[in-house]
Amino acid sequence: MHLVWLLAWRFRSNKRQNGFISFISASSTFGIGLGCFVLILLLSVMNGFEKELKDRLLSVIPHAEFKSVYASGIENWPAEVEALQHHPEVIFVEPYVNATGMLQKGNNMKAVEMTALDPLYASDGVIPSLVSSEQWQQFQLDENATMLGIGLMQKLDLVVGDKVQILLPQLSEDFSLSAPKTLRLNIIASLDMGGELSNHIGYMHMSLAAQAQNIKYGAQGIRLRYRDAFSARELTREIGYKLTPEVYMSDWTINDGNLYQDIQLVRAVVYIALSLVIAVACFNIVSTLVMAVNEKQSEIAMLKSMGAKNSLIISVFMLQGTFNGLIGTIVGVIFGVLAATNLAAIASFIEDLLGVQFLSGDVYFINFLPSELNWNEVYFTALIAIVLSILATLYPAIKAARINPAKVLGH
């Protein structure tokens, strides 16, 4: 084995090696390293987006909603809420009323999706953490209090302490529209939830919204959050089929799942595309070794005439080619890990240097470039690069072993 390593290193570091072969060898190493670097970095970004999606967006929006099929709401909803609170996969349950209407301040109007909450149940949720304790206490005491998304407030030029009107459509018994119901609300807090949510969402009291929309039983539906947000689709159907009242079932993957699906799609595309980049770089190893075999036919013939076996020749050239892949993989993995763990700082530096912002908080639910390194993906990337590098050495190594010493030395 020591002889194999010695010959492989001697062939690789031969001073008389053709300059073009050296260039192709270096380009293959660079290509493999670049492929590993970019693959690790982009997968870390995808992991970062997925983590922020779960920690930020999915901490605000409900994972599942069960809405009554009747305009009168859910009868005996407190009992249903209590039963759901004992489900092992459910961590939060609350009744709600949807109040979609027009928010008006002077001559300015804007569509708004108000979610009406019962402060008694909402106190254990996420909303209180988005405002100060004084503001939440004020919301509990004032039935006309409202909390609006910061983007919505900016578009209507509102500030905390203002009074606004909300116009809610009214549906009569024959399902014809009548004059809208007007409510006057006091803005006690602004909410910054990131992205589009802050531009059209607000919260108000459930009792006020139920009364304004003639919801007899006081709650239009029940919404909840699971321990694992990504199991929402299956759990929602499992729970929904067991509920006593007739309800429409909905989970976050229906309304907001496109973002998660996009992340998974981009992850798959990145895996395939950059694995092909690494594979193309490995083809340069084939070219390098084929030219090296042609250049060193006499040395190979002499080794075989001295008794070297075909297995030795194959091992020498496989090891020589694997050097390129191994060096490229190690360098690419090191720089990829360093870049992935410091991506936020690097992106912030580039933004300050160029005077641009990669992600806008007005459009996306975050305003920075997230990154989360997954070591299993790092190991898998390195494994792919090394395996492809070894496979690329097979043809040239076998070709070298097939050289006929008598034919080469005879000339």
From TrEMBL:
Keyword Cell membrane: yes
Domain (MacB-like periplasmic core) ranges: 27-237
InterPro entries referenced in this protein's UniProt entry, alphabetically: ABC3_permease_C, Lipoprotein-release_system, LolCE_TM, MacB_PCD
Gene Ontology cellular component terms for the protein in this record: plasma membrane protein complex
Subcellular location, record wording: Cell membrane
Family stated for the protein in its record: Belongs to the ABC-4 integral membrane protein family. LolC/E subfamily.
Annotated protein name in UniProt: LolC/E family lipoprotein releasing system, transmembrane protein
Domain ABC3 transporter permease C-terminal: 272-405
Gene Ontology biological process terms in this record: lipoprotein localization to outer membrane; lipoprotein transport
One Pfam family, short name: FtsX
Spans through the membrane: 20-46, 268-292, 312-338, 378-398
Keywords: Cell membrane, Lipoprotein, Membrane, Transmembrane, Transmembrane helix, Transport
Membrane topology value: Multi-pass membrane protein
